[in-house]
Write a structure and sequence with these properties.
With about 140 residues, the protein is α+β, with helices and mostly antiparallel strands. Helices cover about 35% and strands about 30% of the residues. It has one domain (about 1-130): Alpha-Beta Plaits, CATH 3.30.70. Strands 4-1-3-2-5 form a five-stranded mixed β-sheet, sandwiched between helices. The protein binds flavin mononucleotide. Flavin mononucleotide binds near residues 23, 26, 61, 65 and 71. Flavin mononucleotide (FMN) binds near residues 23, 30, 47 and 68.
Length: about 140
């Protein structure tokens, strides 16, 4: 049974490219083995991540991620069964959230993931994806 899990969190301290690089490196190695795909949006001191995969695998990874000291205030936004993956080919894509991004300015000007609904967050991820060149 496939599920999609969406969570948000706040970065602890400065998130440098080294930190992001090490997160993505372990994500890409581990996710491929665990059959997990998804996207990590990061920037403005925030993370928004979507994890897709078998329910047990996603739950196991999420339990690891919430204990990770590189972020805090981890908040589960949604978890649902899915028939197909949105990101079948991406073990973990990476998209930067920048306040200078016209998508943020025009479509999500008062963007605060901690008050946004799941629908708004999924729409933001879609908008970022349509206009960014995700690294995967
Ligand atoms: C915001 C964030 C997202 C993460 N996403 C993933 C992920 O998708 N897959 C993964 O294996 N680890 C991810 N991690 C890292 C895990 O928390 C954990 O450090 C890692 O799985 C341990 O890998 P290692 O055993 O190779 O050190 C993430 C960490 C953070 C802070």
């Amino acid at each position: 049974m496939l599920i999609r899990l969406l969570y948000i969190s706040r970065a602890k301290g400065a998130i440098t490219t080294t930190v992001t690089g090490s997160i993505l490196e372990s994500a890409r190695v581990h996710n491929r083995v665990a059959g997990i795909t998804g996207i990590l949006c990061q920037g403005q001191g925030l993370f928004i991540q979507i994890l897709e995969g078998e329910r047990s695998s996603v739950n196991r990874l999420y339990a690891t991620i919430i204990k990770d000291k590189r972020h805090q205030d981890v908040e589960l936004v949604g978890l649902e069964e899915i028939q197909t993956r949105q990101f079948p080919n991406w073990s973990m894509a990476h998209v930067i959230i920048s306040e200078n991004d016209p998508i943020i300015q025009l479509k999500h000007p008062e963007f605060d993931p901690f008050t946004a609904t799941k629908t708004q967050l999924l729409a933001l991820v879609d908008d970022l994806l349509m206009n960014a060149s995700p690294i995967h």
